[in-house]
Write a structure and sequence with these properties.
There is one protein chain. The chain contains 15 helices and 15 strands. By secondary structure, it is an alpha/beta fold. It has an eight-stranded mixed β-sheet, with helices on both faces. Helix 7 (173-187) crosses helix 13 (368-374), helix 8 packs parallel to helix 12 (328-337) and helix 10 packs across helix 13 (368-374). The protein is globular and about 65 Å long. It binds zinc ion. One of its GO terms (cellular component) is cytoplasm. One of its GO terms (molecular function) is manganese ion binding. Residues 228-235 form the Cytosol aminopeptidase domain. Keywords: Aminopeptidase, Hydrolase, Protease.
Length: 411
């Protein structure tokens, strides 16, 4: 790889996507064990000395994270169910010396996680909320990354068709990216409190499946009338962000999800969509995307005009919009935010990665590089600092800052 110093991180992450770990082609596993790919970096332009050992270590951790996420997303649900996803979380926890917190099955119900429980209760493998927590001495703020981990999405009783269901093994792409990024971030040294929150469920069909018209009580205390069982990601994430807010005391909550098919219409195949209550963080996401290769473009954030799409006559809200022609990807994100409250003083960032989570038939590991870059300043690693979006305030137009009452610093 021949590139300039500022492009090393993005180039390495791009290369990682070209070497997927998952295959079930017969005979391939034996060949894969032997296959070693050696990549050499030649730096040109300014700072064109030899690549430092610390840089290589950072690249190794980042690319391992990208490939871990891609492997989980590529693995079909007959192997990557909620049990096996929890094993992946346990494995990362063991490597980092962290014991995960796991709330599962009936305990979700009794503790009030009506979103995750309601979505996952029809499946053979029960739903789970799992958390990996890193709480170093000297931390000055608390960050939560919340991932949508729908290991398979049939749509539930609002079932998907034979052409739209294939590929739904990828509906855990947000949780997979959070896991890959968390592993790399902690290995590179993360100075603030960081919680990885995994909302795991299989949206299945059976006698115990949630029906349209059912009303669920979510962890936020709000009630939701289900009008579309295929709008399940926002239900599990609503519980995840509520937990991050109420139980983890997070100052910054970022959720990442393959949330809406409409994301591809809004921002295309290559750009994730960002929806956030902070103009500063919106600009930071765009800038981090350009530096790491996981591109991002903003969605309209306007709860005062859009949230009425979820109006219900009998509950606090419905889970699916009345009008699909009214910025549905924005609305889906707003549903999640409404469970921490639009007046919550912290920073909330929602990243919809439905389209860029894959390229053709392969997972991309999208989101890992983005999280590492976006929170690069929480690390002392020079490379992560180089790709962090710090200083992006100058990119924000004066007029935009007015709406931004959130003064949480960029880490
Ligand atoms: Zn769905």
């Amino acid at each position: 790889m021949v590139c300039e110093q500022p492009e090393v991180f993005a180039s390495a992450c791009a290369l990682a996507r070209a070497f997927p770990l998952f295959t079930h082609r017969s005979g391939a596993s034996r060949r894969l064990e032997k296959k070693t790919v050696t990549v050499e970096f030649f730096l040109v332009g300014q700072d064109n000395g030899p690549v430092e050992v610390s840089t290589l270590q950072c690249l190794a951790n980042a690319t391992d994270g990208v490939r871990l996420a891609a492997r989980i997303v590529d693995t079909p649900c007959n192997e990557m169910n909620t049990d096996t996803f929890l094993e992946e979380i346990n494995r990362v926890g063991k490597e980092l010396g962290i014991i995960p917190t796991v709330i599962r099955d009936e305990e979700l119900k009794t503790r009030g996680f009506g979103g995750i429980y309601g979505v996952g209760k029809a499946a053979l493998h029960p739903p789970a909320l799992a958390i990996l927590s890193h709480t170093p001495d000297g931390a000055t703020q608390t960050i939560a990354w919340v991932g949508k981990g729908i290991v398979y999405d049939t749509g539930g009783l609002s079932i998907k068709g034979k052409t739209t269901m294939p590929g739904m093994k990828r509906d855990c792409g947000g949780a997979a990216a959070v896991l890959g990024a968390f592993r790399a971030a902690i290995k590179q040294g993360f100075k603030d409190n960081l919680h990885a929150v995994f909302c795991l469920a299989e949206n299945s069909v059976g006698p115990n499946a949630t029906r349209p018209d059912d009303i669920h009580l979510l962890y936020s205390g709000k009630t939701v009338e289900i009008n579309n069982t295929d709008a399940e990601g926002r239900l599990v994430l609503a519980d995840g962000v509520s937990y991050a807010c109420k139980d983890l005391g997070a100052d910054i909550i970022l959720d990442m999800a393959t949330l809406t098919g409409a994301q591809g219409i809004a921002t295309g195949k290559y750009h994730a969509a960002v929806l956030t209550n902070s103009a500063e963080w919106e600009a930071a996401c765009v800038k981090a995307g350009r530096k790491c290769g996981d591109l991002v473009h903003p969605l309209v954030y306007c709860p005062e005009l859009h949230f009425s799409e979820f109006t219900s006559a009998v509950a606090d809200m419905k889970n699916s919009v009345a009008d699909r022609d009214n910025s549905p990807s924005s609305c889906a994100g707003l549903f999640i935010a409404s469970h921490i409250g639009f007046d919550w003083p912290g920073v909330w960032v929602h990243l919809d990665i439905a389209a860029p989570v894959h390229a053709g038939e392969r997972a991309t590991g999208f989101g890992v590089a983005l999280l590492l870059a976006l929170f690069g300043r929480a690390s002392e690693d020079p490379l992560l600092n180089l790709v962090s979006p710090l200083g992006c305030e100058v990119d924000v137009e004066d007029g935009d800052v007015g709406r931004d009452s959130k003064r949480r610093r960029l880490v």
